[in-house]
């Protein structure tokens, strides 16, 4: 879906109810029959048939004909349901341009009380094919595992951010719905795209934030110059869904990998030599 905001505006209340009914139906059906959609939405079946046709044209529902005609939703409709939830909660007033496309997410600008970044988690459908096969024999398997995985990632990231904010310099978490997370928009370039006037101080500040997270029991586990925004106030660390607890079996390795990424960047770009042991001590040894 190219323009999320436009698609969002073009959706009627009934269409939204249908999408939400399909979402509910997908808990029990891989492909939801239209009579179930009618039951769940409380809309008459003739109207449901007509609206499903429209939603299919808009590529917001997928259709499969077996011994019955079944429907399901994928990321485009899931995006709209999450956004409409944010609007209903009053967390988001408007959606703007796409500002980032990562490996596992799409990020949009938004407007709430203040400027927002709205991160829509995406989990590769292909990478879930095998998970699906593995889970086929389970009775409580999620019917569309990639939506489930994306929602899990968003929930995890939101919970981590709520734990860290405001002790650690991260965007303020605002709201979470399904696979979507609304947070404070942080103005500024990523660390890899600026030249710091005082790089040593920059590195110190990053280590201090890592130490603060560590004291709250968390290791980022995907830290690099791409996940640090240099704001007016200093470095702000983003992208937390994979964070691990400090007692995780691989915590040591993951913390070292984060540090190596940062130290290597500062050594390469600014010629700063700081030994891994010394940096490690600053992160875990600070009281
Ligand atoms: N709070 C924010 N304020 C401003 N920009 C943001 C914010 N959050 C994310 N972005 C932008 O969106 C991009 C992707 O976000 P993020 O790193 O969280 O997602 P990702 O998909 O995990 O990324 P990747 O896989 O590339 O690491 C960021 O690099 C940044 O440019
Ligand atoms: Mg990132």
Spans where pLDDT lies below 50 across 5 or more residues: none
Average predicted confidence as pLDDT: 92
What is the CATH architecture assignment of the largest domain?
A: 2-Layer Sandwich
Rough outline: elongated
Counting H and I runs of at least 4 residues, what is the number of helices? 10
Radius of gyration: 22 Å
Helix content: 40-55%
So, the CATH homologous superfamily of the largest domain?
Answer: Phosphorylase Kinase, domain 1
What can you tell me about this protein's structure?
It is a single chain. Strands 4-5-6-8-7 form a five-stranded antiparallel sheet, sandwiched between helices. Strands 1-3-2 form a three-stranded antiparallel sheet. Strands 9-12 form a two-stranded antiparallel sheet. The protein has 287 residues and is an alpha+beta fold. A hairpin with a 3-residue loop joins strand 2 (62-65) and strand 3. The protein has three domains: 4-73, Winged helix-like DNA-binding domain superfamily/Winged helix DNA-binding domain (Arc Repressor Mutant, subunit A, Orthogonal Bundle), CATH 1.10.10.10; 90-184, Phosphorylase Kinase, domain 1, CATH 3.30.200.20; 191-284, Orthogonal Bundle (Transferase(Phosphotransferase), domain 1), CATH 1.10.510.10. The model has no long low-confidence stretch (mean pLDDT 92). It is elongated and about 70 Å long. Helices cover 45% and strands 19% of the residues. The longest helix has 20 residues, at 145-164. It binds adenosine-5'-triphosphate (ATP) and magnesium ion. Magnesium ion (MG) is lined by residues 102, 226-227, 239.
């Amino acid at each position: 879906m190219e323009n999320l905001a436009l698609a969002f505006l073009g959706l009627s209340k009934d269409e939204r109810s249908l999408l939400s009914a399909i979402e509910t139906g997908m808990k029990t059906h891989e492909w939801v029959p239209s009579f179930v959609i009618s039951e769940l939405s409380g809309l008459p079946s003739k109207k449901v048939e007509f609206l499903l046709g429209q939603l299919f044209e808009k590529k917001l529902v997928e259709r499969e004909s077996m011994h019955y005609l079944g429907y399901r939703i994928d990321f485009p409709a899931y995006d709209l349901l999450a956004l409409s939830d944010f609007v209903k909660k009053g967390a988001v007033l408007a959606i703007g341009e796409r500002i980032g496309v990562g490996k596992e997410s799409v990020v949009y600008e938004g407007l709430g009380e203040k400027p927002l970044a709205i991160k829509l988690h995406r989990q590769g459908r292909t990478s879930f094919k095998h998970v699906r096969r593995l889970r086929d024999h389970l009775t409580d398997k999620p019917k569309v595992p990639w939506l489930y995985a994306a929602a899990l990632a968003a929930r995890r990231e939101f919970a981590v951010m709520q734990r860290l904010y405001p002790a650690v310099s991260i965007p303020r978490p605002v709201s979470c719905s399904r696979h979507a997370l609304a947070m404070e928009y942080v103005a500024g370039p990523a660390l890899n795209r600026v030249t710091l006037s005082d790089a040593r101080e920059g590195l110190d500040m990053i280590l201090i934030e890592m130490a603060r997270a560590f004291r709250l029991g968390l290791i980022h586990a995907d830290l690099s110059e791409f996940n640090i925004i240099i704001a007016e106030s200093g470095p702000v660390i983003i992208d937390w869904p994979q964070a691990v607890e400090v007692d995780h079996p691989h915590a040591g390795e993951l913390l070292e990998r984060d540090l190596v990424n940062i130290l290597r960047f500062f050594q390469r770009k600014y010629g700063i030599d700081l030994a891994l042991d010394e940096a490690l001590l600053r992160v875990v040894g600070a009281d």
